Amino acid sequence: MKSPKERAIEKMIIDQLIEGTASYRIAELLMEDPEVQFMQEYANTVSIVRLGYNDHGPVHMRTVTRNAVAMVALLHTAGISLNIEKEKSGTLDDSLCAVILASFLHDLGMALGRQDHELHSITLGLPIIDKILAKVFPNNPEKRIIIRSVALEGIIGHMSNRQIYSIEAGIILVADGCDMEKGRARIPMVLNTEPRAGDIHKYSANSIEQVTIEPGKDKPIRISVEMSSDVGFFQIEEVFFPKLNMSPVKQYLELYAGIAGTELKKYL
């Protein structure tokens, strides 16, 4: 059963989309699919209970989707075309379809473990992508192939360990990195009280109070990160920044971070 938080984030996603579009329908189908829900939930069980990592389940994947859709809108408002549209392979909504599919499914592979989970996410997510695209574009195999290809690039590229080239895939990298608020580390903090390697990830994430994505002053997108203590800078400098450096979207970003209530440091 979905949690109230999952349903709240779903509403935020849907509210950003235009009813009647393919992207709206794809978002609905993903949210209504019990197989997707079960896969996300089990990925989270493995991530949190078995491995002691942060949330990689339904809430996280919905949060990344919400972030990604918001960034697509900000880039479009600023007159930045995404690759599918720029290359005349499709429309802005086709790009949005790919971004939604990638962000909603990008961590399914955590069900098999952390190592190479982005590759496993493709194996587990591809049947879902094909099933949904067949429903939305039953008579347009070319469009299905284009959207599927860009979605898969977004999934395989979200760990910043390989070069990606599309703005769509770059959005997934940044949207994933933006999910660092302290709620993501809440359950691991409760379940795992004994010291263990990698604790800096959950403690640093637990210090992040708020991440805001909004129009920038000099660039299309401004990301502001407020934290309760200096340990949060680990999330910015060691976790988030490597993602930004590998993302084609970096050139369109402003990044500010610091202790809540003080002047934020400008990174980008």
Written account of the structure:
There is one protein chain. The chain is α+β, with helices and mostly antiparallel strands. It has one domain: Catalytic domain of cyclic nucleotide phosphodiesterase 4b2b. Helices cover 57% and strands 9% of the residues. The protein contains twelve helices and four strands; from the N terminus they run αααααααααααββαββ. It has helices at residues 4-16, 22-32, 34-50, 58-77, 83-86, 92-105, 117-136, 141-156, 167-177, 186-191, 199-206, 233-245, and strands at 208-215, 221-227, 253-259, 265-266. Strands 1-2-3-4 form a four-stranded mixed sheet. Helix 2 (22-32) runs parallel beside helix 6 (92-105) and helix 6 (92-105) packs across helix 8 (141-156). The longest helix is centred in the first third of the chain and has 20 residues, at 58-77. The termini are far apart. 48% of the residues are buried. The mean pLDDT is 92.
